[in-house]
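One example given next:
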Amino acid sequence: MPFRIRTKLIIAFFAIIFPFIAIVGAIALYNTKTIHTALLKADATSEELHTVLSLQLAIDKSLMPGNDYIITGDKRYIDEFNNASKDVEDLIDKVEKTHEAKEEREILKAIKLAWQNIKDTSQKIFTIPNPIGNREVATLMGEMDYKWAYPVIKMLDKHHEIDRKEHAEAVEELQGGWRMSWVIMIGGAVILITFGVFFVLFYSRIFTRPIETIHNGADAIAHGDFKTRLDVKTGDEIEQLSNAMNEMAAQLDSFYSNMQAMVDERTSELKESEERSRTIVETAKDAVVCIKQGGIIYLWNKSAEEIFGYKADEVMNRSMHDVICPERYKEKAAEGFKVFSRAGIGPVVGKTIEIEGLKKDGTEFPVELSISAMNIRGEWHAAGIIRDITARKETEKKIAEQVDFLERFHKASVQREFRIKEVRDENEVLKKKVEEMGKNRNK
């Protein structure tokens, strides 16, 4: 096959996923760049804020040695001022390097000018040998604080406000980038799920249609329509399955045709055999009776009708023990049939016995009974062949009477023979005595 299901699914999957990855990846890359830029800007403005705040604190700190010198006159505050001055100048250079906006540069220019004046004023203060209570020093200190230091602080506050706004804008841009990242992720997930659902629905219809065709064909074949043929052209395993189903249907059709002929032939044979069996049963001289569980009669042939006097429709579905069994045998027969129903065995199964039967008119008569066991669908059935032996019993009785008569006659004949022999023996004795008496007389 040029394309198989797995190949089709892989091609379809990548046909959907590649454009999705390309589009979402491009958006994500752009947003990542935006976030990176915003992060750098936020870091830079944060650094600027820190630098400006440090400069503001450094300028405040640089004012303290001059005030302390005026109060104490201690020269060591000159060195402290020089150190603070160096920190301020370093911070001014740092701020100048990191701030490029025009407004910020103008503010920084004014700050540098003011700082230079603060520095020059401080140097003038430090040149006065006795500053304590000196009016000139107080004037210089007031000029430094109010004319130059205070405006510098104001300008630094303005500079700080500009940096704070820039930092807030950078943070907002950064947060917007992160929000966009979430939008991209959620939107991408939604789009992917949408494409996935579309993919499932579209390809499920592509695959379920031929599968439904195969299912309907299989149902038709299962219900015996072996002429059904499937027309599926998908170029994959489904088409292979369809072709296999068609081949199976063709084989089943051929097999069913042969099987039907065999079944018809076998049915004809069974019907013929059943007809022969029925004929044999119906024409048998002996009664044939078949019973099932509970001793229920379901077969009663013509001879049974003649022997017992019941028509077949009179005994069908009745208990054999209630129909042809004398009262004195019923209890024993019922117990024996319970054992027979469980295992198909019994004291009279497979034997021929002589017993009395009961006719419809209540007459008891001698019968010869043969019972065979049959297991039909897991249930034990009994087939009984019953022969009326009334005539035979009467003949046997007559023969017995004749034999008895002959035996008595024979006995009487034997006794007569013995008596004749005794008389003959007595005659011989008498004859010998007469002869002896004659001889004696002649002497």
